[in-house]
User: Fold this.
Amino acid sequence: MPKVKSNGTELKVDLTDKEITQIKELLNREPSITEWGMFDVMHSEHCSYKSSRPKLKFFENAEKNYDRVLAGPGQDAGVIDIGDGYCLAFRIESHNHPSAIEPYHGAATGIGGIIRDILCMGVRPIALLDPLRFGTLKNNPHSQWLLKYVVKGIADYGNCTGIPTIGGEVEFDESFESNCLVNVACIGLGTIEDFNHAPSRAYHPGDYVILMGGSTGRDGIHGVTFASRTLTEMSEADRPAVQIGDPFTKKMIIEATIEAIKTGHVRGLKDLGGGGISCALSELTGEGGTGALIDMANIFTREPGMTSFEIMLSESQERMAFIVKPEGLEDILAIFKKFEMSHAVIGRTDDSGVLKVRDGENLVVNLPSTALSDAPTIQREEKSPDYLDALHKQKTPEPTKELKEIMHALISSENICSKEWIYRQYDHEVGVRSVVKCGEGDSGVLRIIGTDKFIAASVGTNSKHCFLDPYEGAKGGLVETCGNVIANGARPLAMVNCCNFGNPEKPESYWYFSKALDGINDFCRTLKIPIVGGNVSFYNEDEVKNTSIKPTPVIMIVGIIEGAENIITLPFKKPGNDILLIGETKGELGGSEYHSVIYGTEGGVPPKINESIIKATWEFLLELYSKNLVEANHDVNKGGFIITIAEMCFKNKLGANLDLTDSNVNDLRDDIFLFSESAGRFVIESATKEHDIIMEIAQQHGVLVRKLGNIIPEPKIIVRGLKENDIFLDVIKLKELHASTLPDLMEI
Amino acid sequence: MTIKIAVIQFPGSNCDFDAVHVLNNVMNVDAELIWHNNFKEAHFDGCIIPGGFSFGDYLRAGIIAAHSPAIDEARVMLKDGRPIIGICNGFQILTEARFLPGALLRNESLKFICKWVNIKVENNKTAFTNRIEKDSVLSIPIAHAEGRYFTDNLNELEDNDQIVVKYTNKRGEISEESNPNGSLENIAGVCNLEKNCIGLMPHPERASESILSPKGTTHGKLFFESMIEFIKKRGF
Assistant:
């Protein structure tokens, strides 16, 4: 790492030599040590997106192209107008490196950070979702330890703040063993007026800058630069760079902030996250076109003797910066007093365009407001990995086991089994909005009290598919998450993403990132889904083992359902009803659970996405909903449609009598047909008398629909019409296998 | 005159808005969310101590709130016979404040548990169960990490009819499998000797609207209906 010097003090920085020269030229002097530290943090990959920005600029301008988008990429969270004067803010981000080192506090402070991002859009956080990835659990105490404490960290923090955790996603794969992925997502709900009150900018000179919340301590100093490096054995020594969360203070911050915004006196709002006070002040003034003079003496610290370097770079949790109109100062201070929150006026904005920080007589920071946010971009090289060709050529072996045995192995596999062990630990009902709860549907559905509107939200992707083909795999993640909200009756409205990739300085890792973003961009343009935000986490590697994680572009989708009667749920409801498969099943088993669980391979060709068929399928389903023709819906995901059907039988202990004679349109081998992971498919329940009308509508939309059979009252699944032997499955047995995997692995 | 009910908001309460929503919009009474330092008992016919993590559950769940001036105000209501209910963290506060007997310990699993359970009404002569038939089985959710009820005076509780609800299966049978947290005798809620104050670990405010209930039930409403009935009979 290069070193910089100022007044005899030496500092190791992650800046390149070129950046160091540019900074000196810009200022025309040697920066102070505090300023060096600020540049170091603000130019880190985490804050500046210097490797990813060249790709991100290809995303279309969501704010310009979609009326419903109120805030798009570059803001703390995406915000969309959902009608009736309401808006939704949502964002997803990673907290991978801290969680890999210290799972409990790493995950907890991840939740803390994402809550602040939503809060600073001026709205109340109302839901959390958590996509998680770990190494496989079996015989792996390290992965079990990570899962246990990440879940506990999320639960303890989320539950205490009174924000329900309404959904999530978990994948287990060896590549995440030492670099687990902890992504956190939050949704906020408010009025458009609330949103307009609180921009993350300081536009007006003469306003007061108030710091509110936790005190500034020595924890988390250089947490951001740590997140932009690869994990090594030395990383265990980085533990002090992981911040400690305090959900109780966070709860008070939420209430105090909401009350302050309602007064109309707040003119700007910013959370203190990565980069601490430096980052918040430079964004507020730099983007707002103002400057500010801050007096360090007014920043309340947790311990005496902290240097200006430590104060400006501390990433202590639970802090917010407010920009307040002069005439509203007393009212705002009274609110903070009511909630007994520590607070201080630390300075005022001005029209200088310069950010100045005073430490006694000395100006320790004296930088143009925009200097810190103008990190140069870096064009990285990309190259497709050599191993992919051989992987794509792998064929599905001939099954040596009975299909029933394979089915039992799949339903109890770590990736397909029930995640109840996890979501029981999350309060998913606080707020009295949760209508479709964890385990009851493909997405979480929340009501908006006082309206007849419902929010559906889902997160996910398939990292095994992305590993084989990042372009199609990233699209597949969109098909899957959009499919989840559609399965519950919603129309997808907007997306945000969280890109988790390896070291961008390696051309193969950057190629994965680049191709995945192309996939996201192409799909969203065609399907008219605005991209309203994103987060990029690079350097997810384990240098000791010299491995990179599987590429993981996690997608978050929110949709709206109009009217309670239009909410669709997953379980089969009535014996006698038809079971229909929507969409075409092809021999697409690359990166499938079938391959990895049964044969221990991950090759083959993963599912390809045809946007026009996807679009037709969505329109078809929405038309069926509008005519009340669907009783249950579940999108087809890992393990194929036979797993989907089993999951639909569980809740009401029903069964399915299937005859697949006419449905295998591509004449696939039995195992390939049953376990294919072709994207964009759904299994629906509908009344038998509606069959003809459904087929007619399907034809109009050009969507392939096949009747697979009927629901039966006995809890068994009978599969006839295969090329080989019929299969007879016991639903109660399948349900037990599905339910017991995680408790068996996690409870000693 | 309308019935006025206080929902006391401690720092860290988080089921406060939910309780106010149900009382105002489902039960159609006049409920007021009131910051703990501003609570004056004389203005109210009854009070609700909502769930959450008052004062962050620091030191021990409920103990800091139990020593607050707001609880001193509530004690006046208690002596006066007005109805008081503590839900979840509110129940923990009321046991710490000695309004109610016993204590709530860490769940047997040592984990937070959020799920719908069944409870059976053991005593329907309290301020919050007078509108429910004895032995009714109700569907209602729990969400807590410290809900394992314990007392060393079980006989006294039984003799005085202070056990209000117990965790059961859907047929109303008390069993180990239907005990979610290891509570003594499956106890989910108790009352004081005078029967005007109860504590419940389950959340009636989350079970008062059919859209929120997996089975479409509204059993939680019965506790609030009973409260309103009790206030009406007392006169307000």
